[in-house]
Write a structure and sequence with these properties.
single chain, alpha+beta, Arc Repressor Mutant, subunit A, Alpha-Beta Plaits, 2 domains, 4 strands, disordered C terminus
Amino acid sequence: MDHRLLARLADGLPLASRPYAEIGRELDLSEDAVIGRIRRLAEGGVIRRFGLIVRHHELGYQANAMSVWDVPDDQVDALGTDLAAYPFVTLCYRRRRQLPRWPYNLFAMVHGKERSQVQSQVEQLNEQLALGHLPHHVLFSTKRYKQSAARFAGALSKAG
């Protein structure tokens, strides 16, 4: 039964006030049973992440950029937490540097209605968090890729 639930989740949650109840109706399960199965799949490592895909372009956000900084390793966690608190930062994470060509270890995705807004927001981050003195770069997206949920083909044998 869990493979049917995983397949249904891969298509996204229904836009409903009680999406798990609606999925339950589709699979002949109660809302509590759906939530319980999702919890067990997550605890068992079959589902590692449960998140939201926001289609920014459709919401009028035409510009986006990945901003990157080379932050001292002992400051990355604190600065990442501070960056993530800004409402226009939609994604923030740490990555290993790929020296010698790529010295950056802190990444933050910034979205805006237009390019100048994104540039202003990155300047705000640099100023308010005292990041401007660090090596950094702003990489604007030039192509839109289709976003989709993860597929669970490899997990089906574990899910039963």
